[in-house]
Amino acid sequence: MGGETFEIESAVDEIIRFLPGLIEASEDVSDIFYESVTEQSWQMFGQFVQAMDDLYRASKTIHNELVQSGDYAAIHPVFANFISQMTEQFETLNSHVDKEEYVQAGDHIRYELASLFQHLKSFLGDEQAVKERRFAANLAFLEQHFAYVYEVVRGLKPDRSRYQVTYTRNGLPNLCVLTASNQKINIYSNYDPYHEAERWVESIDDTINGKSNVLVFGFGLGYHLLQLNRKYPEHQLVIFEPDEQLLLAAMEAVDFQELFSKINIKLFIVGWNKTLRDSAFYYFARREKGETAITAIPVYDKLDIRKKLEFFEDAKTAIMLFEVSTRTRNVFGFQWLQNKLYNLAHIMNTPSIRGLQDKLTGITAVIVGAGPSLEADIKNLRKLKEHALIIAAGTSVQSLMHFNIAPHLIVSVDGSEANYDAFSHLDVNDVPFLYNPLIHNKIIENKNKLFHFLIDGDLTSRYTVGWKMDDPVFSSPPSVTGPAIQAAIYMGCKEIVFTGQDLSYPGEHIYAPGAKHVSQEKSDFMIENADMQVENVQGGMNRTNSMMRVTLREIEKLLESYPEIRFINTSQSGAKIEHTEWQSMESVLARLDKVIVPHDFMDESMANHLQPYSESRKTEITNRLFQMPGKLAEMETKLKRIEHKLGGLRELGRMKPNKCQNTMVEIEEMWEPIMNNELFTALIGVAIPIEVIEYDRNLPELAQEKNIVKKADLFCEVLGTFIKAMKDCFPQLNVIVQEAVRRVELQTQITAAEGLSR
Predict the structure, then answer these.
(1) Between the chain's N and C termini, which has fewer beta carbons within 10 Å?
(2) pLDDT for the residue 133
(3) pTM across the whole model
(4) Count: domains in the chain
């Protein structure tokens, strides 16, 4: 070996290159001591001793540099241990030679020193150049197969001082991570990672058995994933690796082409991007069949337990939210579609919230929920109405009116009959009313101060209203509180106070006095079945259920996305809400005492700033609606033609495979325009959501099938079943569309008559 160097990586590489020759020399030199020792023998031994001394000195130099720099913590003990053992072994060898115990000297070189050198070689692993070539190959693999992951990591540089590739006793790659607190964590056993991973898979058998999909938190170096796939080869894996640097280290250590060829992976997500994570959860929940297990590689508890727990909570919440949302849409699909189309007559003739953007700057908004704790705040809330904007979130207006408090603004979204029942007995026709097209159409029929907003997932309104770049579009948490928050922020409020937003069941009631849309029997049932708990504002625990937990979690995620807004929770007994600070309603009132908000403040703001849609946009909306009956009839005709071709497909698959193949191509060409038709997503997807999801889940199997007979059967089963569901919904769709057309025509006549009478 050459002279000393203080470039750690190059110095280690020099040792890696040097060790194979020294190991080979150990065998050659040991043999001379089993024979008569000659002058030539001593020359060979002297060269061997010099080589060992070179290795020892180089190791000492690296060790000293590591001690001084504090870097590369993973290999520091490797060299410290080697130097210590080398000193002992060399002394023992000298002792044997001095005593002319030549056979013992030969044994010591062959079995002790050679083993020591081999262990050092195993621990140091590959040269950096080899790792860099592997890294480049893995980067190219990601670019081809996982484009998003490639975009995340391609501009990053590996932090080799804190993420150090090491090697186990059996020569497999391992990884030592130096945490922010300078704790060294080996992510695998230093002896046999495969055995460790195998035992882990056995330990989660109850979690995985009976499931079809597995969400795994942590990628590591792939050992756990390989063992998981070996035992459950049919399971679809979704892998989340939260640490980009850990993945970069893995890219230097393992061959991704080989690893991924042995894993049945559906999605691979890298980094801690919450938006992407939530999108991935939604995509997976929508597309995959069967139940899903959630698990984590054990060492991630040590690496970052907070992220792991957040991942588990987010995954469970996302899956539960999708399931609840799907069931709800399946029950209310036609009702919601009817509302969105019937309400077009109002949408065209009432302004959107757009004109009020940032017009309420300096005003505090109080968003009222209907939780039991509202009653305790009512006295101060009545006074606060003169100093802040009071917004009733949905049916909480019942309780406010019960206590003779008319809010400045009502926000409502719910399209159910229950929501209509809640409003049917209320005299709020002259209260400013912000609604979404989803709302039950009867609720807004006689309201005098209407304006509206759009929701990002509403594909029906996206088509019918024709979204523009500057249209205010809000996200849709599973509670009207979410849009109320976004509306307040859109209008310029920098401080938002929550009252009655208990998001749990703090006592024996689920609503404040005045709520009439839920019977006592149903209320009692909900409380009795609230079998979960959540921390409350007092530090105790409240009863809750899975849906309420999802609602709380989604509200918290929404608040997190507005770090510039001050959120205050005044509930005296409700759930603790992350990203809020607790204050009593008395203290809020005292702080805002000098601010004056007139009782007609919202009315004046609407009159001064809101404008209805332009005549050209109204014409666009009308034209899209009036064209629907003809487009639906055209779609139905095309579906019948496809159905006719499907009728003979099974027989063709068995008797005339070539013609069958051509027919399937023709069907696909006929089917593609239907799937790409805007009416498909705007109407069909809303009316029969379960059937759409089932089709999406079955489509990959159909696309991947190569056997012509089986593919023909799948065409008939997957596409045929879906087309039947579509055709079955057309009569009801046509009735709804025709009525929507009638309502718009009637409203147009009324508006024209009012214009003439002025």
Answers:
(1) C
(2) 94
(3) 0.75
(4) 4
Position 758 scores a pLDDT of 57
3-state helix, strand, coil in the chain (%, to 5): 60, 10, 30
Domain boundary, last residue among 259, 293, 323: 323
Asked whether residue 443 falls in the same domain as residue 389, the answer is yes
Give me the pLDDT at residue 3, please.
Answer: 39
Tell me, yes or no, whether 2 lies in a domain.
no
Query: Would you say 468 and 451 are in contact if contact means Cβ atoms under 8 Å apart?
Result: no
442 & 575 share domain: yes
Report how far residue 751's alpha carbon sits from residue 281's, in angstroms, rounded to the nearest whole number: 46
Cα separation, 408 vs 298, whole angstroms: 53
C-alpha span between 113 and 22 (Å, rounded)? 10
C-alpha 370/C-alpha 461 separation (Å) is 29
- Assess whether 558 and 645 both reside in one domain: no
Do both 409 and 316 map to the same domain?
A: no
Kindly state whether residue 330 falls inside one of the protein's structural domains.
no
pLDDT for position 750 = 79
DSSP 213-249: EEEEE--TTSHHHHHHHHH-TT-EEEEEE--HHHHHH
Cα–Cα distances in Å, from 530 out to 83, 524, 709? Answer: 63, 10, 51
Q: What is the CA radius of gyration of the chain?
A: 35
Q: Which residue has the tokens 């029969």?
A: 688
Copy the structure tokens of residue 344. 């077009």
Is residue 260 domain-shared with residue 159, that is, in the same domain?
yes
Q: For residue 31, give its domain range.
A: 8-124
Q: Is there a single domain that holds both residue 284 and residue 350?
A: no
pLDDT at 525: 77
Q: Give Cβ neighbours of residue 532 (< 8 Å, ≥ 6 apart).
A: 543, 544, 545, 546, 549
HSE (side-chain half, CA atoms, 13 Å) at 546? 11
Roughly how many angstroms between the first and final C-alpha of the chain, as a whole number?
Answer: 101
- Whether 213 contacts 226, CB under 8 Å: no
CA dihedral angle for residue 508, residue 510, residue 511, residue 515, rounded to 10 degrees:
-100
Upper half-sphere CA count for residue 432 (Cβ side, 13 Å):
24
Among 578, 249, 606, which residue's Cα sits nearest to residue 408? 606
